[in-house]
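Q: Hi! First time doing this. I have a protein sequence and I read that you can turn it into a structure. Is that right? Here it is:
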Amino acid sequence: MRALRLFFSIIGGLAAAAILLILIVALGYLISNRTNGHLVSSGEKRSYLLYVPRSLDSSTPVPLVLVFHGFAQWPANQARVSQWNSLADEEGFIVVYPSGTGFPKRWRGAGINVEGMDPLIDVKFVSDLIDKLEGQFNIDAARIYATGLSNGGGMSFLVSCTLSDRIAAIGGVAGAYLYPMPQCDRSRPVAMMLVHGDADPIVPYLGGPSHSFTIPFPSIPVWAKEYAAFNSCKTSPEPISGLEEDVTGIHYSGCDQQADVDFYTILGGGHSWPGGKPLPKWIVGKTSQSFDTTRVMWDFFVAHPLK
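A: Yes, that's right. Below is the predicted 3D structure, encoded as structure tokens:
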């Protein structure tokens, strides 16, 4: 019954701001949505947007980064917002933006196993997608990473639970971490980098419902601490130095199998991808440009290959 109540809360808890957001992104989706790859997984036709740098050396194994869009977003929009393609050109890796399902698009990342919402359907899609790309490209199996925005951040956590033998490290930005941590049955701890604005109007920094959703979001600082404990990290984190004045960061070390946890807070930051292309400020709040999320996250990924 609890799962059903949460399910109906997710579907029926849209307030006026969220409905308006859906209408706006629906227009953008119709104009700019594009994908360039398809596969059938669990009987569903799924799509994705793949980016392969032209200068990639096919003789050398390269990393793969999976980037999940947020609720009511889509692959091309996530590529634009996060700017992973430019960094892929610089560093020489492949990026894929999988597409969720439904309208508005979303990920089954809440751990609710009711009809049509089984999270393992999306997990199987991700696994099938990795299989397909490994068959097409020379991908380094020790350097497959996952990240995402909002609902997509929650999806990155879900795949770390279910595909920990394949996903080396994960990232979450303004993440909606609704999959219950006690259900996270993984074969190894997975390093994670979190970024969240303390003025996020969609997924509140301190948890609870927002003006857009009646979902009981977890407190992000508490969730980060619990995740660090889940990775058996030291109890007391260390401050991360060298950040701009509107960014604070803490580093959990001494973790099992060196699965570190880095947690960055954007002071005054909204429901957006810091350092990326801003989403509408009147809906999501401020997008900080003083923290390059994508580059910092890539450095974190590089430091945490699958061992």
